[in-house]
Design a protein that fits this description.
Number of strands: 10
GO molecular function, one term: cysteine synthase activity
Shape: globular
Keywords: Amino-acid biosynthesis, Cysteine biosynthesis, Pyridoxal phosphate, Transferase
Distance between the termini: 42 Å
Structural class: alpha/beta
Enzyme class: transferase
Strand content: 15-25%
Cofactor: pyridoxal 5'-phosphate
Catalytic activity: O-acetyl-L-serine + hydrogen sulfide = L-cysteine + acetate
Order of helices and strands: EEHEHEHEHEHEHEEHHE
CATH topology of the largest domain: Rossmann fold
CATH class of the largest domain: Alpha Beta
CATH architecture of the largest domain: 3-Layer(aba) Sandwich
Largest sheet: 6 strands, mixed
């Protein structure tokens, strides 16, 4: 049998920084999640959430699904819904880039926009309200344990295998926190000494894909003991590193990925013989209309 598109979610490359880390005594490795079919790390939980919901009998093709998203999960869910035959309603703040909105619509999703001021918190509340009114089922990436389970099943094992078990530090931006929760659980089982570092924006900074959640909106599966250190970064630090990655390494990515590499480089300068893995969440082409490049 020939493979289908869903067979190509995951197994993304892990590549070494060549120039930007050559002044350090550590190795910085980047997991290129933009190589997934819909272009981001969110392809993994999006497809996994659908697959597991089907196995439980919660959904069947033809059903309508609802999700609040700031972008990448929405695109990934729209792709997964198209593969499997679901209707998809996506609720998103209107300040997200035009590329993101167009990508969701291209996959056949219906897009419901809320204002920037209402933000993701309101989008999440609206999704629950629509479900209560019988308009569809909310997958709820923020509280669905299948989100981190996807990374425990795929991202974590891939990093362990591709780094030949040499990874000493793992760095990830924190949005839903699904990536860092799942990868942390897997890597710590292999070697409890591996350090897990999560990124959040400094107070008042806005970085697409990373959040400082109010306590009431923290993702339900977030367990703070799985993160050894939380690092605050500014938008300027993330943007400058993002541009440097494209110009010096040929790695074209988004702002949150620039933040992860900024933190990885600072860590590499402090350590000797560390093997630091950072997640490159997505590709830079879905941010071009925002002018950040």
């Amino acid at each position: 049998m020939f493979p289908t598109l869903e067979d190509y979610v995951g197994q993304t490359p892990l590549v070494r920084l060549q120039r930007m880390a050559n002044h350090t005594q550590s190795t910085v490795l980047l997991k290129l999640e933009g190589n997934n079919p819909a272009g981001s790390v969110k392809d993994r939980p999006a497809l996994f959430m659908l697959q597991q919901a089907e196995l439980r009998g919660d959904i069947k093709p033809g059903d309508c699904l609802i999700e609040a998203t700031s972008g990448n999960t929405g695109i990934a869910l729209a792709m997964a819904a198209a593969i499997k035959g679901y209707k998809m309603k996506l609720i998103m703040p209107d300040n997200m880039t035009e590329e993101r909105k167009a990508s969701m619509r291209a996959y056949g999703a219906e897009l419901i926009l809320v204002s920037k001021d209402q933000g993701m918190e309101y989008a999440r509340d609206l999704a629950k309200q629509m479900q209560a009114e019988g308009m569809g089922l909310v997958l709820d990436q923020f509280n669905n344990s299948d989100n981190p389970a996807a990374h425990f099943a795929s991202t974590g094992p891939e990093i362990w295998q591709q780094s030949q078990g040499k990874v000493t530090h793992f760095i990830s931006s924190m949005g839903t926190t699904g990536t860092i929760m799942g990868v942390s659980r897997y890597l710590k089982q292999q070697n409890p000494a591996i350090q897990i570092l999560g990124l959040q924006p400094t107070e008042g900074s806005s970085i697409p894909g990373i959040r400082r959640w109010p306590e009431a909106y923290l993702p339900g599966f977030y367990e703070k003991q799985r993160v050894d250190q939380i690092i605050d970064i500014t938008a300027d630090q993330a943007l400058a590193t993002m541009r440097q990655l494209a110009q010096q390494e040929g790695i074209f990515c988004g702002v949150s990925s620039g933040g992860a590499v900024y933190a990885a480089l600072r860590l590499a300068e402090q350590l000797k013989d560390a093997v630091i893995v950072a997640i490159i969440c997505d590709r830079g082409d879905r941010y071009l209309s925002s002018g950040i490049y």
